[in-house]
């Protein structure tokens, strides 16, 4: 029997976490790991203690901001990083597995947190209809290894 790699396990978990999202528009999951151990997990949705979009606004989701993005939700990567930091986890050299490539603001957080590698399943640029994956380009420019999974 062939055992799955940790990359396979962590990406599968990120995909399953995406199903927990309360966002009406998109479902994204993330796993932070280091040395074959999970540090933190996250999925996109509103901050704890606020409204769940699918319950409060089941048809249209929460209000959009000036750029057309969700005005309430945190991205999966943000939730995973914030939870790790809140609990004192060291992120230097960690690997992030995410179902959607990071947007530019998340890429800046990923770099600043010291995360060394990002595996992503789908392109944020394709999802948003953008010319380029700015977040991936940013990470590559500053030495964070990025890998499109699958």
UniProtKB/TrEMBL annotation:
The keyword Hydrolase applies. Its cofactor is Zn(2+). Pfam families: dCMP_cyt_deam_1. Keywords: Hydrolase, Metal-binding, Zinc. PANTHER family: DEOXYCYTIDYLATE DEAMINASE (PTHR11086:SF18), DEOXYCYTIDYLATE DEAMINASE-RELATED (PTHR11086). Belongs to the cytidine and deoxycytidylate deaminase family. This is Cytidine/deoxycytidylate deaminase family protein. It comes from Olivibacter ginsenosidimutans.
